[in-house]
Amino acid sequence: MSQFQIALVSGDGIGPEVTEQAMAVLNKIGEQFQHTFLFQNVLAGGCAIDATGKCLPEETLECCKKADSVLLGAVGGPKWDNVPNNQRPEKALLGLREGLGLYANLRPATIHKALAEACPLKPEITADGLDILIVRELTGGIYFGERGYREGKYGKEAYDVEAYSEMEIKRIAKNAFEVAMQRNKKVTSVDKANVLESSRFWRKVVTEVAKQYPQVELNHMYVDNAAMQLVRNPKQFDVIVTSNIFGDILSDEASMITGSIGLLPSASLGETGAGMYEPIHGSAPDIAGKNIANPIAAILSAAMMLKYSFQLDKEAQAIENAVTAVLEQGYRTPDIFSEGMKQVGTKEMGELICHNI
Ligand code: IPM
Ligand code: MN
Question: Which of 55, 94, 123, 274 has the fewest beta carbons under 10 Å from its own?
Answer without folding.
Answer: 123
